[in-house]
Design brief:
Elements: E1 3-7, E2 10-13, E3 18-25, E4 33-39, E5 45-51, E6 58-60, E7 68-73, E8 78-83, E9 92-99, E10 105-107, E11 111-116
Parallel strand pairs: 2-11
Antiparallel strand pairs: 1-3, 3-8, 4-5, 4-9, 5-6, 7-8, 9-10, 9-11
Length: 117
C-alpha cells in the first residue's frame, strides 16, 4: 500500500520557521521525483518545490523561491521542506507529491501551516 505521510505543520508567528517532512512507503522512493505543493484558502494548488531523482535537479515554484528549501533522504524515504521567514500569506495546506516518471502519481493527505501576524 502506497503512503505519503506529511508532518511538521502547525501554527507559527510571522518571521518564524518550520520544517515539513514527508515519509513514504509502498513504492520505489529513490526512483521518484518528489515535490511539495500548497493550497491556500480559496486558491488553486500550486507548486512550492520539486526535486528530481538521480541528478537532484531542483525546481522552485513562485511560492517557494528565496525562502524555502527542498531536500530528500532516500535512506529514510523522506523528503523535507525547510521554510524560513514565513509570512501570513504562506498559510496553506502543504501536500507531498511523488511521481515515478510513469503513470503513477501519489499525494499525501496534507499538513496545515498557519502563519499568524
Amino acid at each position: 500500500q502506497v503512503r505519503l505521510e506529511e508532518s511538521g505543520g502547525g501554527v507559527v508567528h510571522a518571521g518564524g520557521s518550520l520544517r515539513l517532512s514527508c515519509t513514504a512507503s509502498g513504492f520505489v522512493f529513490s526512483g521518484s521525483a518528489l515535490s511539495w505543493y500548497r493550497q491556500r484558502p480559496g486558491q488553486k494548488r500550486e507548486l512550492v518545490a520539486g526535486l528530481r531523482r538521480a541528478d537532484g535537479d531542483i525546481e522552485y515554484g513562485d511560492a517557494g523561491k528565496g525562502r524555502f528549501t527542498i531536500d530528500r533522504d532516500d535512506a529514510q524515504n523522506t523528503v523535507y521542506l525547510e521554510m524560513k521567514a514565513l509570512k501570513p500569506d504562506d498559510t496553506a495546506v502543504y501536500y507531498c507529491h511523488a511521481w515515478n516518471y510513469g503513470p503513477l502519481i501519489y499525494w499525501g493527505q496534507g499538513t496545515q501551516v498557519t502563519v499568524s501576524e
